[in-house]
Task: inverse folding
C-alpha cells in the first residue's frame, strides 16, 4: 500500500468535518482581528516592537491551531473509530504519518495566509510606527509565524495521539499557553525561554535579545513537536486499538 | 483459500484472560455463527484477527497471512465491529468515502453499497441523525466496500427492525452462497439459527464447540413429537407398548419425548389411533446452547481434573 491513498483518506477526513474546517477559519479570524486591534492601540510602550504588535493576534489565535491539531487526531478516538481506521489501513506508522501530513499542510498554509493578512491589517493601523520594518524582517515574521502555528498544531496532534483524548490534550495545552507560559515566562530567564511556545515566538519580534534567535527558537519548538509526535507514534504503534 | 485461521490464540488484559488457547478455522462458502455469552471473547477474537489488538500468544491469520501485512485490506476482509465507530458529524457517504479512499476504492462503489444497504436516501445526512439500525447498515456497507472474500460481522442484527433482520439474513446467505467466508457473532440464538450453517461456540475465552449447526443441535437436544387425538386411552396404550415416553398436557395435546415424527406417525396409523394433529418439534439452537452452557457451568463448579492455574 503506498502513501498517497492513505494521505488522500486523511485529507478527506479533515475536509469532511465541519468543526475542523471551522477551527482553521477561526485561526484566521481570531489572529487577524486581534492583530488589527493591536495595530490601532497605543505605540508608546518603551518595549514596543512593531513586528510583534502586528503579529500579536497569534497569541489568542494559536488556540485555534492547537484545537485543529488536537481534534484532527482525537476524532479518531470516538467510539472505536480508530479500529475502523486501522482495519482499513493496518500499517500504523504509515497511517500516523499520513495523519500528521494532513494536519501539517493545511495548518502551514492557513498559518502563512493568516500571518500575511494580520501583518497587512495591523500595518494599516500602525502607520508610521511600523515604517522601520524591513522587507526581510516582515518575510521572516510571516514565514516564521506560519511555521510556528504548524508546529503548535503538530505538537497538539502528537499529544492527542499519546493521551488518546481531545479533552485531556486541550485541558493541558490551553492553560499552558494562556497562563503558565505567560506567568513563568515573565518571571524567569533562560529555562522558560525554552518552552515550546516561548521559543517559537521569538521569530515574531523585530528585535530579540535572549539566547535564542528566530530560527533557533523555532528549532527548539520543532524539537518539542518532534518529541510529541514520536511519543504519539509510539502509542499508536504499540497499544491495542 | 481465504479461510480465517485462529491458532492457539491467547489474549490477556492484565490478569484477565479474554481468549484462552483458542484454535479454530472459519471456512469459505458457509455462514459460521460465532456464539457465546457476553464477555466470552468473541469481539476480542475478531479484533485479534484484524490485528487491532496484539495477541499474548498464538496467531490469527486470514488466507494464511497476518491482517497487518495485507495491502489494501478492505479488498480482502470486510468487518463490522462497532456501529458507533462512524463520526457523527460526517455524512454517511463521506464516512464511507474516507474508508474507501485509503484502499483506492472508487466513489462509484460507495454509492453501490449505500444502495445495497438501503441507505441511499440518507447518504447525505449526518451520521448523528441516524437510528441505531441505520448505523448498523452503514457499518455493514463499510464491510462490503471492497467486495471482500471474507466478511466478519459483530452482532450485525443489533437495532435492526424486523425487515432489517430478514434483510441481513438473506445478505449473509447470499454472501456465503457466493463462496465467501462469513463469520457472524451473536448472542441471539433464534437469529443465529436462521442463517448459520456452522457454529463456533466460546465460553470464557475457550472453544466449547466447532461443529455444523445441525449436528450441534441433534447431539444435544432429542427431537420430540406433538400429537393430539380424540382417543387418549388408545394413544397412551400404543405409546406405552412401544416404550415411548409420553406426557399429556392440560390443553389436551401430548408430547412424545425422544421420538421422530416419522416413527410416531407410522405407529399410530398402523394401530388405528385417530389423530387430529401430528407435529415434529425439532430441537432448537437455544435448547442445545443452554444444554452446553449448563454442562460448562457444571464443569466449572466441579472440575473433574485439576485445572492449570490461570496466569
Result:
Amino acid at each position: 500500500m503506498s502513501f498517497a491513498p492513505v494521505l488522500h483518506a486523511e485529507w478527506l477526513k479533515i475536509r469532511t468535518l465541519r468543526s475542523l474546517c471551522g477551527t482553521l477559519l477561526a485561526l484566521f479570524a481570531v489572529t487577524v482581528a486581534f492583530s488589527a486591534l493591536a495595530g490601532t492601540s497605543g505605540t508608546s510602550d518603551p518595549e514596543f516592537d512593531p513586528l510583534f504588535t502586528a503579529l500579536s493576534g497569534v497569541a489568542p489565535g494559536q488556540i485555534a491551531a492547537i484545537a485543529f491539531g488536537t481534534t484532527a487526531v482525537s476524532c479518531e478516538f470516538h467510539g472505536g473509530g480508530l479500529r475502523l481506521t486501522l482495519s482499513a489501513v493496518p500499517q500504523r506508522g504509515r497511517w500516523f504519518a499520513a495523519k500528521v501530513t494532513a494536519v501539517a499542510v493545511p495548518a502551514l498554509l492557513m498559518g502563512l495566509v493568516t500571518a500575511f493578512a494580520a501583518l497587512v491589517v495591523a500595518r494599516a493601523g500602525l502607520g508610521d510606527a511600523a515604517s522601520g520594518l524591513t522587507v526581510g524582517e516582515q518575510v521572516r515574521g510571516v514565514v516564521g509565524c506560519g511555521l510556528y502555528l504548524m508546529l503548535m498544531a503538530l505538537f497538539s496532534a502528537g499529544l492527542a495521539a499519546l493521551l488518546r483524548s481531545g479533552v485531556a490534550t486541550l485541558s493541558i495545552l490551553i492553560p499552558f499557553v494562556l497562563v503558565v507560559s505567560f506567568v513563568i515566562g515573565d518571571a524567569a530567564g533562560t529555562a522558560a525561554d525554552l518552552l515550546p511556545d516561548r521559543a517559537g515566538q521569538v521569530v515574531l519580534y523585530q528585535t530579540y535579545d535572549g539566547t535564542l534567535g528566530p530560527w533557533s527558537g523555532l528549532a527548539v519548538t520543532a524539537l518539542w513537536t518532534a518529541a510529541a509526535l514520536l511519543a504519539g507514534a509510539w502509542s499508536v504503534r504499540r497499544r491495542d486499538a | 483459500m481465504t479461510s480465517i485461521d485462529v491458532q492457539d490464540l491467547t489474549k490477556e488484559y492484565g490478569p484477565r484472560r479474554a481468549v484462552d488457547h483458542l484454535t479454530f478455522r472459519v471456512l469459505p462458502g458457509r455462514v459460521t455463527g460465532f456464539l457465546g455469552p457476553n464477555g466470552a471473547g468473541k469481539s476480542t477474537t475478531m479484533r485479534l484477527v484484524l490485528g487491532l489488538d496484539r495477541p499474548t500468544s498464538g496467531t490469527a491469520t486470514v488466507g494464511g497471512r497476518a491482517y497487518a501485512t495485507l495491502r489494501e485490506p478492505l479488498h480482502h476482509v470486510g468487518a463490522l465491529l462497532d456501529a458507533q465507530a462512524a463520526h457523527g458529524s460526517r455524512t454517511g457517504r463521506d464516512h464511507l468515502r474516507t474508508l474507501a479512499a485509503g484502499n483506492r476504492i472508487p466513489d462509484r462503489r460507495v454509492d453501490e453499497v449505500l444502495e445495497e444497504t438501503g441507505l441511499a436516501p440518507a447518504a447525505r445526512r449526518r451520521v448523528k441523525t441516524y437510528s441505531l439500525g441505520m448505523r448498523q447498515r452503514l457499518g455493514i456497507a463499510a464491510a462490503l466496500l471492497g467486495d471482500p472474500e471474507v466478511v466478519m460481522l459483530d452482532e450485525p442484527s443489533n437495532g435492526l427492525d424486523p425487515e432489517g433482520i430478514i434483510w441481513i439474513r438473506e445478505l449473509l446467505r447470499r454472501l456465503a452462497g457466493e463462496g465467501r467466508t462469513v463469520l457472524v457473532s451473536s448472542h441471539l440464538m433464534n437469529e443465529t439459527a436462521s442463517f448459520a450453517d456452522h457454529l463456533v461456540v466460546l465460553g470464557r475465552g475457550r472453544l466449547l464447540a466447532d461443529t455444523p449447526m445441525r449436528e450441534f443441535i441433534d447431539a444435544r437436544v432429542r427431537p420430540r413429537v406433538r400429537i393430539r387425538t380424540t382417543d387418549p386411552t388408545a394413544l397412551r396404550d400404543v405409546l406405552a407398548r412401544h416404550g415411548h415416553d409420553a406426557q399429556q398436557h392440560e390443553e389436551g395435546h401430548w408430547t412424545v419425548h425422544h421420538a421422530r415424527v416419522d416413527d410416531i406417525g407410522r405407529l399410530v396409523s398402523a394401530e388405528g389411533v385417530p389423530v387430529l394433529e401430528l407435529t415434529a418439534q425439532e430441537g432448537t439452537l437455544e435448547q442445545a446452547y443452554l444444554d452446553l452452557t449448563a454442562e460448562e457451568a457444571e464443569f466449572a463448579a466441579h472440575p473433574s481434573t485439576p485445572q492449570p492455574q490461570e496466569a
